[in-house]
Structures are given as C-alpha cells and as structure tokens.
Design a protein that fits this description.
Chain lengths: 107, 122
C-alpha cells in the first residue's frame, strides 16, 4: 500500500501568512493526488485534484503543486476561515490512502 | 443540487452487523463511482471502500476486507455498506462521497454526505 506522510502535523500561523503543507508518498503516484479541508464536525471539502487543479468554487489563494512523490499545498494569504485540518489523498492505486492530516491553528 | 444523506448508524455490539445507506440526489447516480470513508473520534480520515459506477469493480481497505461489502442500487439511487463482524476499532463517523469524474475510478470525492456515526461497544 502507498503511504502518505504530511508535514508538519501541526502548524500555528497568523492571518495573512503564507502557509505550505507537504505530502510525501512512499512511491511515485504521478499527479494522482487530492487535497481536502476539514473543519470540526463537518465533512471534508475537496480543494485540489490532480495535484494542482483547483476545484470549482475554491478561492485562488489555495494552490497545489508537485508530482511523483512530493507534493505541496500552499495558502498564499491565510484567512480566518482557513483554520482547519488539511489532508492529502493518493488516488493512484487501491487501496486509496490519506495522509495523517495537518492542523492549522491561529497563532 | 447534489445531496448525499447517510443513514443506518448506531450502537452495535462487537461481532454484530450493521448496514449503512447513502441516498443520493441531484446528479445521475448511475454514472458515478462512490466511496465510503470513515473517521474515528479525534482521528484522521481513512478510506474504506469504492464501487464503480456500474457496480462492476469494488475495492476495500485491508482493515475491512472480508468483513465489509459495498454495493449499490442504481434504480434507487442508493449506496450501501454492509458491515459484519464489527470490532471496537470500526467505531467512526462513516461518510459516503461521490467521485469527481463521470465514469471515473481513480478520483477523489467532490461531494460528501454529513456522515453517520457507528459505535461498536458492549
């Protein structure tokens, strides 16, 4: 099975900060990677698919990059509504797997 | 608008069974693969199972293989997850999710239900 490792697991940042989250895969997955945002008590929300394609309706301050084994999610200017937990998911092969999550909290 | 509504969760004893349902509306259900994803209390997301749009292919996480069965009834726009031999570690909120791309097998979920809680406890 393909393992995904996110870093950091926890991030403290201020409104307006540029934030980068990394997701590393245990083997190459081309661009078969998605990013989700989850707020407490809510279902995950798809932000990015195919590693770098912004899902419809998602603000342009979110961007994704990478291919192969290393991927990043960047929030260019953190907004109050962005404080949440972020997950990557590999879609290259079954069983699909998620990273362990990165919690973004207010500094 | 797309809606996914899970039901069937509850409290069950270890070794017991439960069937979850996910009622879909607002899209052509028979054209989209569907996932089940779960989240144990205070933990991260865990992918559970996938079924192809026509039911011809099914995949499972190792942790549930042989105990859980995913199925669908396209005439009723409903997805199911039959869960047998339940264990304490199956306690979680279970979400159904619609695959992003029509007829796709290798995409994530663009719409998710609100989740249904399954608690396995004696």
């Amino acid at each position: 099975d393909i393992q995904l490792t996110q870093s950091p697991s926890f991030l403290s940042a201020s409104v307006g900060d540029r934030v980068t989250i990394t997701c590393r895969a245990s083997q190459g997955i081309s661009s078969y990677l998605a990013w989700y945002q989850q707020k407490p008590g809510k279902a995950p929300k798809l932000l990015i698919y195919a590693a770098s394609t912004l899902q419809s309706g998602v603000p342009s301050r979110f961007s994704g990059s990478g291919s192969g084994t290393e991927f990043t999610l960047t929030i260019s200017s953190l907004q109050p509504e962005d404080f949440a937990t972020y997950y990557c998911q590999q879609l290259n092969s079954y069983p699909q797997t998620f990273g362990q999550g990165t919690k973004v909290e207010i500094k | 608008q797309v809606q996914l509504v899970e039901s069937g969760g509850g409290v069950v004893q270890p070794g017991g069974s439960l069937r979850l349902s996910c009622a879909a509306s607002g899209f052509t259900f028979s054209s989209y693969g569907m996932h089940w994803v779960r989240q144990a209390p205070g933990k991260g997301l865990e992918w559970v199972a996938f079924i192809r749009y026509d039911g011809s292919n099914k995949y499972y996480a190792d942790s549930v293989k042989g105990r859980f069965t995913i199925s669908r009834d396209n005439s009723k726009n409903t997805l199911y997850l039959q869960m047998n031999s339940l264990r304490a570690e199956d306690t979680a909120v279970y979400y159904c999710a619609k695959v992003l791309v029509r007829y796709g097998d290798y995409e994530g979920g663009d719409y998710w239900g609100q989740g249904t809680l399954v608690t396995v406890s004696s």
